[in-house]
Task: inverse folding
């Protein structure tokens, strides 16, 4: 009798579970498709600079999505080609970059997938971080897959180039945020970013 009651209860519980969670009763989902880059080597570069201004003032001066044109000293003006400056999904002419995340004092952007090229997961984050009531730091972080660059020497050269380029941009942001004027733009080759 106990065995029969146990079997009936087990059947009732299984039926109730199947009714409550119908998607779980089906066969296992197929395996995901293979990765485009089977062995990515994700890397990040974090750069900072101290600024003698409160973070909110720094962000007001250099934190708009198209302010990159000024502090990167890009000859062609930055414009928003889709969406609205500062809103999710805004696209700027610089790199066709898309705003994908933001806080009160930061934003994160990515670059679109290009036909015929492996996607490297490139993301950049710019942040004005409070340090004291009157000082802050600007933090710029790059994240990407560098597995398609080549050997370790080529990867290190790419990292050094990016670090130099973006540290100059940080220096320019500091100058602007502290009320200064930028010196003339240095000569730059293609693909500096």
Result:
């Amino acid at each position: 009798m106990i065995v029969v009651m146990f079997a009936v209860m087990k059947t009732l519980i299984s039926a109730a579970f199947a009714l409550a969670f119908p998607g779980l009763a089906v066969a296992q989902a197929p395996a995901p498709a293979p990765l485009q880059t089977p062995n990515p080597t994700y890397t990040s570069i974090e750069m900072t600079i101290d600024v003698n201004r409160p973070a909110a003032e720094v962000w007001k001066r250099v934190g708009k999505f198209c302010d990159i044109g000024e502090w990167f000293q890009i000859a062609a003006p930055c414009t928003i080609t889709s969406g609205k400056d500062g809103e999710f999904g805004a696209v700027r002419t610089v790199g066709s970059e898309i705003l994908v995340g933001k806080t009160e004092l930061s934003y994160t952007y990515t670059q679109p997938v290009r036909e015929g090229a492996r996607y490297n997961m490139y993301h950049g984050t710019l942040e004005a971080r409070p340090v004291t009531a009157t000082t802050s730091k600007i933090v710029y972080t790059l994240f990407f897959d560098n597995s398609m660059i080549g050997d370790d020497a080529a990867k290190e050269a790419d990292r050094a180039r990016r670090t130099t380029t973006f540290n100059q941009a940080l220096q320019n942001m500091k100058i602007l945020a502290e009320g200064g004027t930028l010196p003339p733009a240095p000569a730059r080759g293609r693909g500096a970013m």
